[in-house]
Specification:
- The structure is a single chain.
- Helix content is 14%, strand content 44%.
- It is mainly beta and 147 residues long.
- It has a single domain, classed as Cathepsin D, subunit A, domain 1, CATH 2.40.70.10.
- It is globular.
């Protein structure tokens, strides 16, 4: 089982995540002679209380994502209409370049109607975490993700 080891940040279980266009969209833009937007390396918070990955509106804008569907997002504060998008998503090690990488491409994500707090770019929910072994070693200050 590949393992990613990261320090636990003051903001919680925050991990580096590379987000880009899904492979089919990337290839279609290139085939048409265009230049696809570059993937982004973002800060994602692991949230076992969230059902799905939630991304910031700024990520949607940068990647020029088009909604594929609409849904209703239920929170403790009520419900909000949201749009769903296909992306390529990769949880990486600390440097974002080497070592094991948890990849989901394509992956359906929820567009947040409002910016996320704490300089976070996305929330990683149970749609990804269900496939992982998580070890949060509070005293040791490390997070281990196995997949």
């Amino acid at each position: 089982m590949p393992l990613i080891r990261l320090p636990i940040e003051k903001d919680g279980l925050v991990v580096p995540v590379r987000v880009g266009l899904p492979p089919a969209d990337h290839d279609a833009i290139r085939a048409a002679g265009g230049v696809p937007p570059a993937p982004l390396v973002l800060r994602g918070l692991l949230d076992t209380g969230a059902d799905a990955v939630l991304i910031n509106p700024s990520v949607v804008a940068h990647l020029q994502l088009l909604p594929v569907s609409r849904a209703v997002n239920q929170t403790v504060h009520g419900s909000d209409p949201v749009e769903l998008y296909w992306v390529s998503l990769a949880v990486t090690g600390p440097d974002g370049l080497t070592g094991p990488t948890l990849v989901r491409a394509p992956h359906l994500v929820v567009g947040s109607p409002d910016p996320l707090p704490q300089q976070l770019d996305l929330i990683i929910g149970m749609d990804i975490l269900r496939d992982c072994l998580l070890i949060a070693d509070g005293p040791g200050g490390t997070l281990t993700i196995g997949f």
